[in-house]
Amino acid sequence: MISKQKKWLFGLLLAVSYSQEVKWMSIGDLHNWYSAAGCEIEVGRTGQVSDQQDGLRYPAFYRVQDNQAAKGLWLGAANFHDPVVNKDYEYKVVHAGPRHLDIENETIPVEMTMDGKYDHPNVFVDGDPATNLQYLDNVNNVDPSLPSDRRINNTVQTSIGVQMKRTIYAFSHPEHQNYHIQEYVFTNNGCFDKDCTSNYEQTLEGFQVYLQYRYAISREGMVYDGGWLPQSAAWGHNTMNDVIGEHPDAPSNNDQYYDDGEVIRGLFSWQGYHSDASFDNIGGPNAPGEGHLGAAQFVGVVTLHADTSPSDNADDINQPSTTWFITSDDPTTSGNDQYNETKSINEYTNYMTVGHPDLSQAEIVGTGNANQFNDPRTGSNPGGTSQGIGFGPYTLAPGDSIRIVVAEGAAGLSREMCYLVGQNWKNEAHTDNLPTSSALHTHMIDNYHRTSNDNNLYKNSWVFTGVDSIIKTFKKARENFYLMESGQSLPAPPEPPSIFNVTSGGDRIIIDWTNEPESGPGFGGYTLYRLKFKPDTTVFSYNVTQGEIDPVDETIATIWTLDPGVNEYEDLTAERGFDYFFFLEAFDNGTNDDIVLNSSKFYTLTNKAASLKRPPGESFDDIRIVPNPFHISARDLQYGVSAPDRLMFLNIPPVCTIRIFTERGDLVETIQHSDGSGDEAWNSITSSRQIIVSGLYIAHFDMPDGNAIRKFTVVR
């Protein structure tokens, strides 16, 4: 029986949801947002349907690499007295996600702060702030002694009388930047509001923690972006979910182990077959395009620790106790109501505490279409399948706590290999070059690859190497966690400079930075990167005919290695009219770890273009328009993929007004040129935000001491 000691009862509050504070972890290859409410629910950050896939971005250097669709956090207890409604419940469940959220009365944010080993640098391009970290990396406190580069501290009070403290760790170490460690501490504090002005003490029986993960891999090829994969893949309709290590006393053939022999308790997901794809969609190849793989990621969660009981903090290898999958549009995943006893009984008994299925969802689907999988419990599956893991049951007396630690990560083929493998697949070239196979990789091929042709076998063999990569990620996370548990930490990469500045000049681009990295142990120097066209330009190129990758394509990327003591560089090789983006990595000499460590590229990556600014023209006769004529067939060859419709007005005065007219005299656009340079770029967009059509155009240059006219032709 529950022991009850009523302090006092507070009134019933209306369940109203409000938008919650979020913070980003964005200093490594894995970027994710975290909610002050303790869980990242479906479209919970922006509320936009187009952001169905939002977060868990990997590899985050490239845009639209989101793999997260929704998450859920449910807490339940048996024989619970709810003082809010003065009612005894056989089972009480409170919820954050996957769709429902009530931050006033159910999962109530108390604290959301972020600590950093150091703050992000101030990054400027031509005097303007020019870093995504300006809004993605909101550090509240700087603490050089942190075991991680970033730490989020999140406290949530719940209406089951339990306070949750969630602590999230992110790292920039090159071998540990693709996972986040997430520690949960649940304390029976008997509070039912944010300030604990109302409380009620009782022992919680059958306390259960239930986490849901709805993955959709990956956004790049989905309906709101690339558009080459089936629409419903955007909400994870064809996601495959597998679980390993759920039976440590009776392991399966595909279970994996740490070096000390302990079984890995994890789940991982990937993009499975979809009935609406007209091609073999494993890995998400851009079949209508050049073929590169847009969904080769494996994402997943590994359990690093779960208390045996409040009085025994040893890791219980039999946790999680529940690993059943759940269909993502199951009625139970929406319309949750903490005061509806019928719903709570169903949630607790049929989802949160049901143990382990005989087969995982992936094992049931096999080589079938994952979007056509039907849940054996509900008989339908309109939205795909999520993976659940449940911890418990625990008995929590007043003041008792239990601690659970997981790591969530992403891995898979490198970006280079996504292009190499995808283009080989598309062109049916070099498909006899298969990867080395592990036992788990062989299991994936034998159970999840359709026997069709050698071309698809080649692609899928490479995609399924991602399973070994996610297992390696789990092992790295555990290695790091054990270091932290012993009071140690990973070898630290050099810190970034506090200021990184890029200045566009007339015949050069000047890059300078402060020298804080040089005070670190074993400092080795700097690597400066220049990217043409856009901030996520690939530095490599692949020649499918020859089957060779150029690791640094110097037509689009340039890399300079600079010695210690060098804190400025003049780029004299930039070409006029093109956009350039930069980032700087400080590196050590390899004595701090068994590899060379470098600071994260994200600290200094610029999001505003620098470009050559020529001096003003000396005469009206010098004014030129380039290209002229503008021809659409050459648009990518003119000023590149970042500015395919660009025209440049060159050798113009330092200050002037440029008015562009059609041949019949209609004003198309007015441009105020006032930066003192001799260049002005125009991307062929009218004042009504339309791209100009074919025809003859007239540019009128109005200056304080005169005017000039130039004509140009557009062929579309």
Structural class: mainly beta
Query: Helical percent range?
Result: 10-25%
Instruction: Give the radius of gyration.
Output: 28 Å
Helical stretch tally: 8
- Total E-strand runs: 37
Number of domains: 3
User: Outline, from the CA principal axes?
Assistant: globular
Your description of this structure?
With 716 residues, the protein is mainly beta. It has 8 helices and 37 strands. Strands 6, 9, 10, 11, 12, 15, 16, 17, 18 and 21 form a 10-stranded mixed sheet that branches. Strand 33 and strand 34 (667-673) form a beta hairpin. It is globular. The N and C termini lie far apart (79 Å). Mean pLDDT is 93; it is low at 1-18.
Give a quick rundown of the structure.
By secondary structure, this protein is mostly beta strands. 11% of the residues lie in helices and 34% in strands.
